[in-house]
Design brief:
heterodimer, A: alpha+beta, Phenylalanyl-tRNA Synthetase, Chain B, domain 1, OB fold (Dihydrolipoamide Acetyltransferase, E2P), Phenylalanyl-tRNA Synthetase, Chain B, domain 3, 3 domains, 5-stranded antiparallel sheet, 5-stranded mixed sheet, 10 helices, 22 strands, 21% helix, globular, B: alpha+beta, BirA Bifunctional Protein, domain 2, 2 domains, 7-stranded mixed sheet, 3-stranded antiparallel sheet, 10 strands, rod-shaped, binds zinc ion
């Protein structure tokens, strides 16, 4: 488990530095194997506003951008032109360092034009793997002249923790923060689980029926209307990347973010593709089939637990979702699953299919049945203050 | 020949024979001289044959003289033969002389394998503390290797290590033991408490060997079960072992860890024996993580029929290869199993 310290400090607001904190946590069973600094190589990158983008006089592909930084203007040659006048973008001025380059930036002549430093893509800043264009910062709460590293919380260390099977609570940022708060004496900040609830009756959105209460004693479902398929805020993308999870879009990222934060695995279904819409949790029948998200058709036995809609199986409980109800870019409404599945059942199913996921890893070690509801709320309203969405909840 | 001439010849032959024998330098020359002086064709022989022509009185007189000369020369011959024989033997002895004090030629000599050195050292340490050595089979059943050690079928720890299974018709669920911990179970099943054992042995994992891992390696496991055993006993015992293995001024530290068959469980670090704990290439930060340990889980005691309310215990296990590469500064664990004589010679004679 990788835990960015900025994230941990949200819940355990200690002033201790990374090394000091590690020294206190290790003897308490948080087996921190390494204290890493993924953005060690990032220095001096600032937020600037694009004033003008014009053609390069001696090149068809290159362009010249004029920018406004904290104390004046500068010009530089850029290889892509997805930025427009008025956009806020990250600028690495001469002397700055970015993680992908070993040498600091310098002023150089590019086909007869003086170019001062570079504008950066998300990949060049080690925020995500996206290298399709210059990172546009308009959605962030940043101003011209801000230091990007400090502004996005990229100046902190990441703990790489080896988690033994007896401490599944350390498979979450909040779990490690709980230990850190206890160890340092700071007060643990409770998770904000408030949600803008819709007024419609929940039964109109979704129903939940559990046929196997031993295998699934608790199932919380939240319907989220009108999701937007845009990138998550950069701070969220950076945290996911630091945890080893690839950012996709705000919908998928929200479930991963909530899982990393609370330890509760989440699954998102496309609500419109669920028949009923209603959730039924039941044991599979012998020979029943399900096409899982990894495009493998699984033949099930009566030992496997299934999540079904009114007509068909839609997920292998606690292990992997099914293809038919997968969230896509067309998805408008989402059904979020936040459930407690019995340890043993998930473990034996995952082992038989040799299918080990972030979700099964957590369920087979034991999750917190009391965490289902809060995690569903976090996942439904993940990225404050923007991105508040309207939800309703059903649970069984 | 008249008698006076015979007498003169006799005298000449006496002198000639003596000279010839005395001057013989070897047994071969002496034999030739013998033939020349005393043989049938010698002058003496001629004189003897000439005696027949003499009248009886002269013949008897001269015959006596001839016999005296013969006897005298025969004695001289024998004396010379003795002298030459002694010389020849001495020469032969001198030529074939054997120095009985030279040491014999030695064949190449084996040395004790480093793994045996380490195992003997650890086991010896515990024998002096009053433990006894216990052993168990390398092919184990699922119950001894897992279930009795509080690792049921659905335990996540089962996926922590990859086991090698053995297929024997009629014996389901046999595997090559993944830990020597199964010996704990077999010992407790075979005797009532108190238990003080040390169990060295070979274990197997489905792993690709590299510089710090082998698929087949050795562990030493220790188990103590008695009334009133506490974590303090574990600490004292481990301290004694660390100091016995790596020197008197070693300190140990406990870090919480997890093994299903102990509770609480700990990882034990020892201050580096090379730098004394300030940090060096061997240790990194001054500590060397040496072994896993803990208090025997009550379920394990109960699985073996022990009263977990009355008895408590501790257990620990360490890898012999790991201790060996640390102690002898071996850069790659695989050297331990390659059987390269140049490597093994470093560890000296038996
Ligand atoms: Zn050292």
């Amino acid at each position: 488990m990788r835990v960015p310290l900025t994230w941990l400090r949200e819940f355990a607001p200690t002033d201790l530095g990374a090394e000091q904190l590690a020294e206190i946590l290790i003897p308490r069973g948080v087996l921190i194997e390494a204290v890493e600094c993924p953005w060690e190589g990032l220095d001096g990158v600032v937020v600037v506003r694009v004033l003008e983008v014009r053609d390069h006089p001696n090149s068809d592909k290159l362009c010249v951008a004029r920018i406004q930084h904290g104390s004046g203007e500068a010009e530089l040659v850029v290889g892509v032109r997805n930025m427009a006048p008025g956009d806020l973008v990250p600028w690495a001025p001469p002397g700055a360092r970015v993680p992908v380059l070993t040498e600091p930036l310098a002023t150089r002549r590019v086909r007869g034009v003086d170019s001062n430093g570079m504008l950066c893509s998300p990949r060049e800043l080690a925020i995500s793997q996206d290298h399709s264009g210059i990172l546009i910062l308009d959605q962030e709460e940043l101003r011209v002249g801000d230091d990007l590293k400090r502004g996005l919380g990229l100046d902190e260390a990441v703990f790489d923790i080896e988690v033994e099977p007896n401490r599944p609570d350390f498979l979450s940022v909040y779990g490690v923060a709980r230990e850190a708060a206890a160890a340092t004496g700071v007060k643990l900040v409770p998770l904000d689980t408030s949600v803008d609830e819709m007024t419609d009756a929940v039964a109109d959105a979704v129903t939940v029926r559990i046929d196997d209460p031993a295998g699934c004693p608790r199932y919380v479902a939240r319907a989220v209307r009108g999701v937007a398929h845009r990138p998550s805020p950069l701070g969220v993308q950076a945290r996911l990347t630091a945890c080893g999870v690839r950012p996709i879009d705000a919908v998928v990222d929200a479930t991963n973010y909530a899982m990393l934060e609370t330890g509760q695995p989440m699954h998102a279904f496309d609500l419109d593709r669920l028949a009923g819409p209603g959730i039924v949790v039941r044991k599979a029948s012998d020979g029943e089939r399900l096409l899982t998200l990894d495009d493998v058709e699984r033949t099930l036995t009566t030992k496997d637990l299934l999540i079904c809609d009114a007509e068909k199986p839609v997920a292998l409980a606690g292990v992997m979702g099914g293809r038919t109800s997968e969230v896509s870019e067309e998805t408008a409404d989402v059904l979020l699953e936040s459930a407690y599945f019995a340890r043993s059942g998930v473990l034996l199913t995952a082992r038989r299919f040799d299918l080990h996921t972030e979700a099964s890893h957590r369920f087979e070690r034991g999750t917190d049945p009391e965490a289902c509801s809060g995690a569903a709320a976090r996942s439904a309203t993940p990225f404050r203050p923007r991105g508040r969405r309207r939800c309703s909840t059903a649970s069984g | 020949m008249d008698p006076s001439e015979l007498l003169r010849t006799l005298e000449t032959e006496r002198a000639h024979g003596r000279d010839l024998f005395a001057s013989a330098a070897s047994l071969e020359e002496l034999d030739a001289a013998n033939t020349a002086v005393l043989g049938r064709k010698s002058r003496l022989g001629e004189v003897q044959r000439a005696l027949g022509t003499l009248e009886e009185a002269r013949r008897r007189e001269l015959g006596k003289a001839v016999n005296e000369v013969r006897a005298e020369l025969a004695a001289a011959l024998e004396a010379r033969r003795n002298a030459l024989t002694v010389d020849a033997e001495s020469a032969l002895l001198a030529a074939d002389a054997i120095d009985m004090t030279l040491p014999g030629r030695r064949g190449p000599e084996g040395s004790v394998h480093p793994l045996t050195l380490v195992e003997d050292e650890i086991v010896g340490l515990f024998l002096r503390l009053g433990y006894r050595v216990a052993e168990g089979p390398e092919i184990e059943d699922d119950w001894h290797n897992f279930q009795a050690l509080n690792i049921p079928e659905d335990h996540p720890a089962r996926t922590m290590k990859d086991s090698l299974y053995v297929s024997i018709p009629g014996h389901p669920e046999l595997l090559l033991r993944t830990e020597t911990s199964a010996v704990q179970i077999r010992t407790m099943q075979s005797q009532p408490p108190p238990v003080y054992i040390v169990a060295p042995g070979r274990v197997y994992r489905r792993e690709t060997p590299d510089a710090t891992h082998l698929a087949v390696f050795h562990q030493v496991e220790a188990l103590v079960v008695d009334e009133g055993i506490t974590f303090a006993d574990l600490k004292g015992t481990l301290e004694a072992m660390a100091q016995g293995l790596f020197g008197e001024d070693r300190k140990i530290r406990f870090t919480p860890s997890y093994f299903p068959f102990v509770e609480p469980g700990a990882q034990i670090g020892v201050t580096c024996f090379r730098c004394g704990g300030v940090g060096c290439p061997t240790c990194g930060n001054g500590w060397i993580e040496l072994l896993g340990a803990g208090m025997v889980h009550p379920k394990v005691l109960e699985n073996c029929g022990y009263d977990s309310e009355r008895y408590t215990g501790f257990a620990f296990g360490l890898g012999i290869e790991r201790v060996a590469i640390l102690k002898y500064e071996i850069p790659d664990m695989r050297l331990l199993i390659e059987g390269d004589v140049r490597f093994l010679e470093r560890f000296g004679a038996a």
